[in-house]
Amino acid sequence: MDLEAITKHSVLHAKPNGLILQYGTAGFRTKAEHLDHVMFRMGLLAVLRSKQTKSTIGVMVTASHNPEEDNGVKLVDPLGEMLAPSWEEHATCLANAEEQDLQRVLLDISKKAAVDLQQDAFVVIGRDTRPSSETLSRSVIDGVTVLGGQFHDYGLLTTPQLHYMVYCRNTNGQYGKATVEGYYQKLSKAFVELTKQGCTVLALVSLPCVGIFLASHASCHGDEHPPLKVDCANGIGALKLGEMGRFLSQGLTLQLFNVGTKGKLNHLCGADFVKSHQKPPQGMEMKSNERCCSFDGDADRIVYYYYDEDGHFHLIDGDKIAALISSFLKELLLEIGENLNIGVVQTAYANGSSTRYLEEVMKVPVYCTKTGVKHLHHKAQEFDIGVYFEANGHGTVLFSKAAEMKIKQLAKESEDEKRKAAKMLENIIDLFNQAAGDAISDMLVIEAVLALKGLTVQQWDALYTDLPNRQLKVKVADRQVISTTDAERQAVTPPGLQETINNLVKKHKLSRAFVRPSGTEDVVRVYAEADSQESADSLAHEVSLAVFQLAGGVGESPQPRF
Questions:
Q1: Which of 34, 37, 46, 42 has the alpha carbon at shortest distance from 71?
Q2: Digit-coded pLDDT (tens) for 403-437
Q3: Averaged over 230-244, what is the pLDDT?
Q4: Which H/E stretch holds residue 334?
Q5: What is the pLDDT of residue 524?
Q6: How many C-beta atoms lie closer than 10 Å to residue 421's C-beta?
Q7: What whole-number distance in Å separates Cα of residue 444 and Cα of residue 434?
């Protein structure tokens, strides 16, 4: 390790005085002008992590659904997963080290993590379309090269595409080809094969109580599926869907909106805006009963929605995506007759109706974890088939190696009906990006399932009725005053807060509420649901007031907004 060279380069990426940042679920995120030193140092850290794991490590420059003037960075571990928690701590220490302490902190990390400094290192880098991203990714490269690491700069990528590249490189191409074309080819081939199969499958098992049936011959050769309208959040998703178009020559028609030629990234559009405001994005023409979806800025989240005949807006979020997908997988598993277990992983934000539907109607076990993809991903790995989606539309499906082998074997050897079901599962395995939640991949799965089942977006929405809910934010002096337990559903501190919430919940029917500190800013997030929107709004406001009073609220006291 050439400490002198590191110090010389670090001065060119000076840390602003007094700036303290925390590596959270989303990595580092803040205003772009404060991130140059962080990017350089994450380049250094990626090299150390690569040396320690003897693997390719990814660095993604993005702030996802944040405003365009923000930016961020996160590291991707060898199998495309989030950075290990112990290395999140190293990232925070390194980013916050004063200039004179940088050498010592690097040596400390190397010693604590038993890094072999003679080992080769390889880092892959991707970035989103923010104006600041190209310059910041050059700072990452500066950090990688000064520590002697090799790198490949993929340039503009969606975040899930970078996760995919890392996974491919560390499995010697077994997971797929580590190029953008390889990604498009794998997904489009699986999509085309899967949707083609629907025309030859006459009658897979159906569950009449759910009201879902597979398409018959007639629906395969009858009216073409109407086009899907996609809000690309003025982000990278527009560029990548455009590139993918030539690989998807059949089976799906997309109309792209908010493609980045006019509006600002994530401004009044994108999955986070639609989910939070429960209304359509600006920049998209919507007629009644048209199927529409929104990506977020780095294309790792997706939500669907439509207007009904009466002009009412209907949101189909991650909970309903999980319900559609797990219902379909359960049917295919019943058909192949193998004892493979399936589980759905949710967070406290999952609507209570979705949990009841999955457990009571579909008879699929549901598990709750703390908020944050790394917690859901980790839990989903415990099943043969683990389905996880956050309500915000971020999620995927994981298949154990044993399940994949069994399905591939059945696709070759079993009798006709079993073989067809196994072939469908085999294509679904390839269609999901198992490295990370991926809006493009998830969209293709959803579109395939809707086409195979002959389902309209309204029929999908009718699987169950969401309980009305409301999410609010309360500004506080220090978010760490709030601590939680039971997968964030119960507040432990400050004293008296949970008791107050319990008493407020008792005032409303079918209600629940919880609070949790934000992972990225000094706010406390409040969630409430109840039997009516009025009750949910009232409960959310009452809980917000309790947080403001008991957890050190700052600024103006929360006002009823609805």
A1: 34
A2: 999 999 999 987 788 999 999 999 999 999 999 99
A3: 97
A4: helix 318-336
A5: 95
A6: 26
A7: 14
Find all residues with CB under 8 Å of 468, minimum gap 6, and list them: 529, 530, 531, 532, 533, 535, 536
Residue 217 has pLDDT above 50, yes or no: no
Q: Phi and psi of 314, rounded to 5°?
A: -120, 125
Q: Which helix (H) or strand (E) holds 222?
A: none
Name residue 140's beta-bridge partners. none
Pairing status of strand 385-389 against strand 342-347: parallel
Task: In whole angstroms, give the CA distance from residue 319 to residue 299.
Answer: 18
Closest to 504 (Cα-Cα) out of 473, 537, 466, 480: 537
Using CA atoms, how far apart are residues 186 and 164, in angstroms rounded to an integer?
11
For the chain, report the end-to-end CA distance as a whole number of angstroms.
Answer: 58
CA distance 396 to 429: 11
Sheet holding 150-156, edge to edge: 28-31, 70-76, 56-61, 122-127, 150-156
Single-letter residue type at 406: K
Could you tell me the CA-to-CA distances from 16 to 96, 249, 286 in Å, in that order?
10, 50, 46
**Is-catalytic flag, 511?**
no
Cα separation of 355 and 368, whole Å?
A: 10
Q: Are 65 and 272 in contact (CB under 8 A)?
A: yes
> Is the separation of the CB atoms in 305 and 274 below 8 Å?
yes
Least confident of 201-205, 309-313, 414-418, 473-477: 201-205
Tell me, what's the pLDDT at 199? 54
Residue 210 has pLDDT above 50, yes or no: no
Q: CA of 525: how far to CAs of 35, 374, 514, 521, 534, in Å? A: 25, 19, 8, 10, 19
Q: Going edge to edge, which strands form the sheet with 292-295?
A: 254-257, 228-231, 292-295, 302-307, 313-316
Q: Is the pLDDT of residue 111 over 50?
A: yes
> Which residue, 384, 339, 385, 343, is CA-closest to 363?
343
264-284 pLDDT tens trace: 999 999 999 999 888 999 999
Mean pLDDT of 459-485: 94
Measured between alpha carbons, how far is 244 from 188 in angstroms, rounded to an integer? Answer: 8
The confidence band for 2, taking pLDDT boundaries of 50, 70 and 90, is confident
pLDDT score for 485: 96
* Residue whose token pair is 């990452």: 140
| pLDDT above 50 for 493 | yes
Q: Look up the pTM and report it.
A: 0.91
> Is the predicted pLDDT of residue 200 greater than 70, yes or no?
no
pLDDT at residue 17 tops 90: no
Amino acid at 245: G
Q: Which of 10, 50, 64, 535 is the catalytic position?
A: 64
SS3 155: strand
Q: Per residue, what are the HEC states of 8-55?
A: HHHHCCCCCCCCCCCCECCEEEEEHHHCHHHHHHHHHHHHHHHHHHCC
